[in-house]
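Give me the fold.
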Amino acid sequence: MKDTFKHQGLRQQLVNTLKNKGITDVNVLKTIGNIPRHLFMDSSFLDHAYQDKAFPIAADQTISQPYTVAFQTELLKIKREAKILEIGTGSGYQTAVLCELGVKVYSIERQLELFKKTSKFLPKLGYRPKQLIFGDGYKGMPEEAPFDGIIVTAGAPFVPTPLLSQLKIGGRLVIPVGDNVQTMTLFVRKGPKEFEKHEFGEFRFVPLLEDKN
């Protein structure tokens, strides 16, 4: 679990890459610069940890491309102490980004193998989400709603209604919608039944699957 000067230098290069690609949120960039992404990947991928690419992890899932993580996080417009629901804990990298930004993170993972691994791993790095559960992301976490923001880290063929209903008024849902290629979509809750929708171009994600595995 080493984080060397070399790793830190590579992270700063990655931050510069993200700036050049249009990420402007200073807190998000600082967070990407702080988190040792190489620790979230198999050691065989160490050379790739600070490239702006997605990589495979356990259970046929991927650790998202840093640009995608930064882009989605920036869209959430996070304030410290906000209550954020993450659908798809995965490797825990996005979870760590949220924790580092000082928010209360509630996260759901449907792959048992990943859930077990990540829930042990995150505290070792000093990241403590409020709640990490093994469950079905399509259902959200109604018992903890409403949330200031919800971030979905897998491609959804449609927008799950429970997620929209679990947003606070003024809350933001960031979700990649589509089958093979996804459109990054932002929903802002304006009233009990009123949502504003924005679309931000194409991204590629592993599919968001229903039920637990």
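Residues 5-20 form the longest helix (16 residues).
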